[in-house]
Fold:
Amino acid sequence: MAALGSAATQGRLHRGDVYMPITPMFHVHAWGLPYVATLLGIKQVYPGRYLPANLLALIAREKVTFSHCVPTILHMLLEHPAAADTDLAHWKVIIGGAALPRALAQRALARGIDISMPRP
Structure:
């Protein structure tokens, strides 16, 4: 329930979102957000292997609007050639697991990605 209050009340996750976790289910982000998404009745997309081309295709096809990942995954997605043709402007991403480098944050913001990081 703490996750419900945390994610939902801070305006990050809404009933109209399409949620795709891009961290393993044992990662701290997956300890609560899948439950919140289920409680809110949000469509959930589980990607399987974290291959950039597949992730970008799922984001486009399923119209994913909310994810969480580590900076390395975000970097892999933005560097992949398919990223140039993928609309990411509707995508909200919570970054964790490591500090987000300023240059990577700027690249994501330039693509219209709404990024946030939990505060320590």
Observations:
- DSSP finds five helices and five strands in the chain.
